[in-house]
């Protein structure tokens, strides 16, 4: 009879509903939002930090400590000052989005130059096309090299590329090159002085000849 009572349809439905609700709560609570990277700065853009956060409030809490801020904070987009007020809008932001954290009484201001630069760790504007990309690589072929070698590579429109490799020189080779340049310079100065002396001599001889012709007058 106990076995038959346990097979009551209402009891089975109740147990199945309880199990589904418990399972739903476990699945819902075991999947928190993932951590995402963001770039934050203060209103003067002098201090920049890279932070990871899953929610808007978590990012504000971390920015409060990283940027040494206080009071009520406001989160805006650095590029145009759009206020990030809701969690839904925050979740729609892409990874590595540049955000500005404002304290009470502060406001967003555009850049003084009016141009959004990128590079040196900053991402380029979206929907932009590369025209030219130039990379510099400084290296040493030998520990005795006084100056490192320089490799310059330029890529245009992502299709055409060219590179230039400037080899570094060691101390002995640099000394030889300096002596060679000094010898060539002195040689050039010597030729210049010889040319000037020859011109002066011709001028003196011409003036003496003119004076002699002026003194001899025909009768």
UniProtKB/TrEMBL annotation:
One of its GO terms (biological process) is regulation of apoptotic process. The keyword Endoplasmic reticulum applies. The keyword Ribosomal protein does not apply. Its main location: cytoplasm. Residues 34-110 form the CIDE-N domain. It is a peripheral membrane protein. It holds the Pfam family CIDE-N. Keywords: Apoptosis, Cytoplasmic vesicle, Endoplasmic reticulum, Golgi apparatus, Lipid droplet, Membrane, Phosphoprotein. SMART domains: CAD. It is found in: Cytoplasmic vesicle, COPI-coated vesicle; Endoplasmic reticulum membrane; Golgi apparatus; Lipid droplet. GO terms for cellular component: COPI-coated vesicle; endoplasmic reticulum membrane; Golgi apparatus; lipid droplet. Belongs to the CIDE family. This is Lipid transferase CIDEB. The lineage of its organism: Eukaryota, Metazoa, Chordata, Craniata, Vertebrata.
């Amino acid at each position: 009879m106990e076995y038959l009572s346990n097979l009551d349809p209402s009891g089975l439905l109740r147990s199945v509903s309880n199990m589904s609700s418990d399972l739903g709560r476990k699945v819902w609570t075991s999947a928190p939002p993932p951590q995402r990277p963001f770039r934050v700065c203060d209103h003067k853009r002098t201090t920049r930090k890279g932070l990871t956060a899953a929610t808007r409030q978590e990012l504000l809490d971390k920015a409060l400590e990283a940027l040494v801020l206080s009071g009520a904070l406001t989160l805006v987009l650095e590029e145009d000052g759009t206020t990030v007020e809701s969690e839904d809008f925050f979740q729609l932001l892409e990874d590595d989005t540049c955000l500005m954290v404002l304290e009470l009484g502060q406001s967003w201001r555009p850049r003084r130059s009016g141009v959004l630069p990128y590079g040196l760790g900053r991402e380029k504007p979206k929907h932009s096309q590369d025209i030219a990309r130039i990379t510099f690589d400084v290296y040493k072929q030998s520990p005795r090299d006084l100056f490192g070698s320089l490799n310059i590579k330029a890529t245009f429109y992502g299709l055409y590329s060219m590179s230039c490799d400037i080899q570094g020189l060691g101390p002995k080779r640099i000394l030889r090159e300096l002596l060679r340049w000094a010898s060539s310079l002195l040689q050039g100065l010597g030729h210049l002085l010889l040319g000037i002396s020859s011109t002066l001599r011709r001028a003196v001889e011409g003036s003496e000849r003119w004076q002699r012709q002026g003194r001899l007058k025909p009768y």
